[in-house]
Give the backbone structure.
Amino acid sequence: MQKIIIAPNWLRFLIIFLLVVGILFRLGNLDKKIYSYDEVDVSLRISGYTAAEVRQEIFNGRVLTRQALTKFQGVNREKNIFYTVKSVAIENPQHPPLYYIIARIWVQFFGNSITAIRSLSCLISLLIFPCIYWLCRELLRVPLSFPWLAIALLSISPFNLIYAQDAQDTMLWLLMAILTSTSLLRAISRKNISKTNENQQKNWIIYGVCLLISLYTSWQAFIMAIAHSLYIFIINQYRWNKITKLYTISVSAALLGFLPWLFITLGDLLRFKLFTASIQNSPQITDFPFLNLWNFSRFVFDGGMVFSNILGWCMAMIIISLMGYSLYFLYRTTHISVWLFVFTLIFVPIIITIPLSLLAKGKIFFWDEYFITTYLGILISLAYLVATQLYSGTFIRQNLWQVIFIFLLICSFISCLTISQADTWWHKNFSYGNMQIARIVNRANRPLVISDYQGINFGNVLALSRELEDTVSFQLISNRRIPKLSTNFDSIFLMNLDKTLLANIEKRYLVTSSLIYKDRFYLVYKLGRIRTSQR
């Protein structure tokens, strides 16, 4: 194993500076980013309402104020926390309820504002720093440079930043993945194995509890458990010994504790309707191929939507090559108990998820949630590589790796600085263009937004309402019915309506419409002025 030198003073000050900058990035402009489609789903679950109830109440053709839509995006008097769990179980079973329960309690204390709900993810992201330090110390008993460099890389990682400012369960899942992995390493460490049976059992109980909490945080904890199982049985040479026995008992107890939610979600296969719909609507391989390796390079450099140009490709290939070398270096210079742990974290999710995705009618799971442990393993390997190379070998070699380290930091810093100033980013997915649409609608005189609940419209209408002024009204329809339009509005916007319905509206009211905004997910038309004689 390579010797890792304790960080010199200048490096310690740099790491502290990066940590402070990373915290400021996370806390800054929390309310400036657009509220996304996925965040609306979280707000809906917090409210305790189901999508079916919302459709019945507001998608009925009546003209509504913007405030009428906020009722379904936060804590209210009609629904308590029991309805939050019920809503998740019925319509969102692919997401276990723990995050929604915590978020519900959080907004009860701090309010339903965008800043309040996103601050929960921000706080959780800060808790990750001491946890990643603990993980690195358990994995490699070395001086402080390795875990502190891991914190430095994580603090200004653009991947970590974008989800630290999102009202989703991603940060909680990352936190639990780190804690569960750390508790496993602690349970099997030689120092703890030599302790009494009572102390050993405590460590395995801690692992079982962490795994159970992880299962109630994300279904991907099952994949992490498979990675851990593979690791345990390989390093024990597939022998049934004390470690494998205690591990099996801990995992079995965690799975037993998860059975209630498993029965709830699997009791009726129809409850997976939203999940299968999300698979059918997930990006195609030709659109967002997982093999576009820049997805992993976004841990260090994230150029947003401009990542598809030549510069983006070059940056991605450089960073991916460095990541690949870090894995090779880890394999060559550490014991199997170290590199195998990192490799299983990285590759087991890939090996399991991609074939399953390809079977889903040629679709693929593009969501980062499925590869949280992969990102975690990459962080560990990069930090280890930098920590061992900064002060080893010749003077020229040391200078080279110092330049590489500074290059990584500059890439991450520029990415985070850009993200912090932007009002939208690529991970906003369906809602990427909401801010631009909101600016158009807010500038209009007496505006009315008309839409239905087909496809992504349901979530995007609620997301868009967060960005609009109180002067904007909504008319939400169902079953592609032609709405009864009022002459009280000077500007009428038709958002993602069916072409046939759009043509019927034009024919019914003898007006024409003009396309004012278009992207991958949106078609927004502005309707001509409705006259009294045309009603």
Notes: Confidence is low (pLDDT under 50) at residues 268-292. Strands lie at 63-65, 447-452, 473-477, 491-495, 513-518, 523-527.
